[in-house]
Amino acid sequence: MHQSNKPPVRRAAVIAVSIAVTAVASALGVGTVASAAPTAPTTATVSPTASGTPSPSPSATSSAGPAKVAAPAATPSDGSDLAFTEPSTQAAPLALTAVVGTPFSHAFHTTGGTGTVAYAIQDAPSSAYTVNVETGVLSGTPTTAGTFDFEVVALSGATQITEYVRLTVSASPLVFTEPSSTATPLKLTATAGTRFTHTFRTTGGTGRLAYAIQDSPSQDLSVDVETGVLTDTVTAAGTYDFEVVALRGTATATEYVRLTVRAAAPVGVLAIVDQGKPGTTAWSVAPGGTITAFSGEGRPLGTVSSIPAQQNGTLYVSGLAVDRFGNRTDPGSVSGGPRPTLTSSVASDQMVWDQSGYAFRVTFPHASPHRLTITQDGVSTSFAVAVRPVATASVATTSSAGGTLAYTGADETAPLAWALGLLTSGAALLLYRLRRRRA
């Protein structure tokens, strides 16, 4: 008999279809999927029944089809998948911040593309902002405070994308150009009676700038409200601590200042003469020789022409070199510093240095007019001492007649605040206290 060849033909058709599906899947980038082996079509067989009537019944059941597998998404080769790593929209831009005067940078990154990406900035706030075409780094030093909207674009192949940016630039802090603190103040130096200036400057802040001085130790210190120029005409030597404040808008800054005012050039020696006994009359001798008597409580009694002393009596003489304002010019001359020298017009006078009282103890063996000269720091002051015999030792302390002072050129009887006030100045008061402490 001739055998039918139909079943082999059907198997060949199924194999061809599987190959075609695999080829199509490969062309589309879909991985090859193993399918179940094809089965022969279902055939019916006839089984005799009791009645003789044939009943068709299936001889086999259909097998399950191939398993379904999800195919991965296709990667475009034209760069259309280019995207920024920090998504933004015009309504929700990328927020960046910066400070005026402080260098600023931000790197933009992308994914996808053809492998080559170029960057550029659009609608830049100013020429101070640039974007590196290769690295995508935005950089610049802001000069103006405010909020600025602009775009950074990236290009790869035929694809261009946009990053929307909102840059908020805040004003830089208001600060002085010469930093200082309470522990490390700005140190300035001036000379008594010589006009001194220093200009304070600030950076940062916005708005109108104004300066002011706080805790001023003297009315001779002032700061110009607009220029920040400190002017000093202080005549009293010493160290002065104060603050200069800058105000700009709502911002403030403080400069802590320590001003050292040094004494001017010495013009003479300020001498203090007393009897070495508490509560007794004392005398101050100003540069130029003007003698002012003071009570034991320090009350001025007027000027005299000479200091009274008794024969074989003792006076204590101390002195410090001072400038024309009464500031002592030799800071190391007290408590162990260089001592002054003292000479007398009468050779028999006995002069002994008393270190504890920082004074010379002078004894006058002879009754006669004496002239003592005290010298320090290259300057001297001379004054008269009227030594009387013991029986007639009293000397009137009436004011001397009018005359011309060699130093000031003013009349001696005039109220000279500088001369009469020397006892309360730093140098004279120091000497006076040393003398009283020794007594």
Automatic annotation (TrEMBL):
Biased composition, class Low complexity, residue ranges: 37-77
Signal peptide: 1-36
Membrane-spanning parts: 416-434
Gene3D superfamilies listed in its UniProt record: Immunoglobulins
SUPFAM superfamilies: Cadherin-like
Ribonucleoprotein among keywords: no
UniProt-recorded name of the protein: Gram-positive cocci surface proteins LPxTG domain-containing protein
InterPro entries: Cadherin-like_sf, Ig-like_fold, LPXTG_anchor
Sequence ranges assigned to domain Gram-positive cocci surface proteins LPxTG in this UniProt record: 405-439
Keywords per UniProt: Cell wall, Membrane, Peptidoglycan-anchor, Secreted, Signal, Transmembrane, Transmembrane helix
Region feature (Disordered): 37-85
